[in-house]
Amino acid sequence: MKKYFDVLRKCRLFREIADEDLIALLGCLGAKVVSFGKKYTIIAEGSPAKYICIMLSGSAQMVRVDYYGNRSIISGIEPSEVFGEAFACAETAEMPVTVIANEPCEVMLIECHRIMHSCSNACGFHQQIIFNLMKNLAVQNLMFHQKLEITACRTTREKLMTYLLLQAKKHGSERFTIPFDRQELADYLEVDRSGLSAEISKLRSEGILTSNRKEFELL
Amino acid sequence: MKKYFDVLRKCRLFREIADEDLIALLGCLGAKVVSFGKKYTIIAEGSPAKYICIMLSGSAQMVRVDYYGNRSIISGIEPSEVFGEAFACAETAEMPVTVIANEPCEVMLIECHRIMHSCSNACGFHQQIIFNLMKNLAVQNLMFHQKLEITACRTTREKLMTYLLLQAKKHGSERFTIPFDRQELADYLEVDRSGLSAEISKLRSEGILTSNRKEFELL
DNA sequence: ATAAGTCTGTTGAAATTTCAACAAAAGGAG
DNA sequence: CTCCTTTTGTTGAAATTTCAACAGACTTAT
């Protein structure tokens, strides 16, 4: 487990927990690590929501395909981020989304009930973990508000500009690289890919931005 | 405070807390009750996010108006529901949304830091409250997933049907009354009101549903 | 280096949404 | 009951999105 310490230290779930306690804690929680190849399904829609997951290496996307066949990307998942916890904590019977590996991944799985019900060893970190989990869920809530701010826009241009402005703020710079290719960005913004490409060209010709593939600069 | 007990017992925040402990707890948390008239602003966009709020009576809507003037309803808030907690717990500087009273309301306000930092009296319920808060945030997360499922749809018809099917499931019946008038439903689904009315008429003429104002029946 | 496959940008036509304006229906106040 | 206000439904035109098809740029594997 030691090789994962650098990522785990950055993970919201383990805030305020000292390195020397972490090993014992992970043991107590029965944490296990699983690897997935590119394009593999990490969590399948419809499967039971038992696990709180932590991305150790690689990246993934949380995705849903609706009744009408529209693919929608709910969020990207990067190393040290927690995912699946909302469904597990809310005791959802079935996962309403799918999580798919973008590239080879290592994921840490912790059974939710190990965290929710205090452990038999009475290890002293449960309270801290629950507090961290709460904070993490609150932050995720904010991310949903951002996502809704984007999807609430009526036109492709408004959605795109709202997204790009949020990215610029997040990166603290007018220049930044986005984590999606065109099709993925379209699925995230919930618009048509070709229309999105056209809109980007238009913004470029209007002198509002410059871009090359995943790199953007707002002018 | 006693007159609010019936609502508070139903509130997620106070699960597993006995009635007789509730009074002491509310005192320890410094809970206060504020009334608002119809159409009054309960929380203003841009104001500091200090409070965890509980709706005691009446109802409200969480709303955002974007840069382009589109009004979007994020959620309806009914008695015993908690709101504003995600922003307070995530320590957001400014509220990104507005909460407006639908009708005369009573709201209980609890300063977030009173819950986050254990109280000086060392009352024994903080852990339970934080656990409840965590569960509540997880459930809210699920609601956002539902909302995203709706807004991810491309057409008015798809959004409307997704919404109505979720409502039918929620009410456990094909007949139900929705909590929005037409304009509000349009703002919730993020579509044009007149287009929404037209779509409802069309579904009616196709024999897919019957409806009268806020009452719907799926056939 | 070449070939195969993927990603991006373009285009035009069809479908859909938005917008503005108005009429009918419902609800409230006096 | 009547007047006034709000809500809902309807319509047609303008704007936008979606869809399908294709070509050029880029990547990857051999």
- Based on CA atoms alone, the radius of gyration of chain A comes out at 19 Å
Give the oligomeric state: homodimer
Q: Mean of residue pLDDT of chain A?
A: 92
User: Helix count of chain A, per DSSP?
Assistant: 8
Q: Span from first to last CA of chain A?
A: 45 Å
Total beta strand runs of chain A: 11
Specify the CATH architecture of the largest domain in chain A. Answer: Sandwich
**SS class of chain A:** alpha+beta
Q: What are the secondary-structure elements of chain A, in order, as H or E?
A: HHEEEEEEHEEHHHEHHEE
Coarse morphology of chain A: elongated
Share of residues in strands of chain A: 15-25%
The percentage helix of chain A is 40-55%
Give the CATH topology of the largest domain in chain A.
Jelly Rolls
